[in-house]
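Supplementary notes (optional reading)

For those who missed the lab, this is the record we used. Protein: UDP-N-acetylglucosamine 1-carboxyvinyltransferase. Length: 426 residues.
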Amino acid sequence: MDKFVIRGGNPLLGTIKVSGAKNSALPCMAAAILTEDEVILENIPQVNDIETERKLLTSMGAEVELGYGRAQHRTRIKCAILSDPVAKYEIVKTMRASSLVLGPLIARTGIARVAMPGGCAIGGRPIDLHINGLEAMGATITQDHGYLEARADRLKGAHIVFDKITVTGTEDLLMAATLAEGESIFENCAREPEVTDLAALLIAMGAKIEGAGTGTIRIQGVSKLHGARHRINPDRIEAGTFLIAGAITGGDLNVDCCEPKHLGALITKLEQCGVKIDVGTDHVRVRSGGELKAADITTEEYPGFPTDMQAQYMALATQAEGTSTVIENIFENRYMHVQELIRMGANITISGRTATVRGKTPLQSAAVMCSDLRASASLVLAALVADGETILDRIYHLDRGYEHFEEKLRGVGAQIRRMGDVFGRK
């Protein structure tokens, strides 16, 4: 099992490039199920979740080619024949996004059998919103032995008001509605850039969609979709992680190939902390403005402060003068990184969904354990400013969603290396 070994103390200097968004790429790969034609996706990140999605689609009968060489960030998907419309547990057990194939499978084939999703243990992501929506569109859904089975001759358009904002629920039902009979109206939809990115691909495939990126989406179902070529959005969470890396180390870091308008809440908060920010058309430069100052955050659905940046921001808060309050409103179990930060010297207390961070505290090296994807990133950030050499175990969580993370950081001055055991990568 691989580990990271990180020696803190170096400011990050230079330019670091952002990869394509995993959370956009996964639903876009699932959308290829909706057509017999070839779908080409560009700017695909080389992360483990993408390989899992490739295995999933291939197991159903799809032809999936992940690019190599000059086309290494491109994938070609052709679902001409879906001989086995089943999302098998042994493939999807490590990935929450497995539920994203439910809608497109039943819309395309009339039947879907999908294992209940796995992934990070950061709290409930109820699939009941997917189920209720598909049932409203005429599907019959049963559950047994850890699988959901959905059937429908053809889905019908429906008016659905989501009980709570759900990104994957919005995406799943959006895909299903493209091939449904009649018009669908969805209210209280997720507005995340990943939803907008998926809608852009679907429209390129011939779908009729209005309102993506707003709270209300209208879809006029069509009988058939065709192939398309689409470029995946930059990863806003990776970009945000690097912005905090530059800020926490007191560096001068240009985060390139990103979409600054997707980073508004984080940029505003970093400025409140005293960080100097320069925003360009496709890059954001972060520079030290002196001592960091405490600032409170509350995680919210987009365009609010993203839950996927909460752990990273908490690492920054340990180095800010004063007391920062962090309120986690999205997931109920997303403070698993806190005990590891405390092991490194952080002063953090938790009461329910509220974490109180008292800084500035000097962090010290320690052996720490990664519990989920974003927690892993927060521990890397803490290690970059810790005294001594920190060892991060279970970094396979991080490999699910960050492309060549240690190589990118090493390129701007971080002392970080990957250490494998006798069975792992060296």
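If you only remember one thing from this example: The mean pLDDT is 93.
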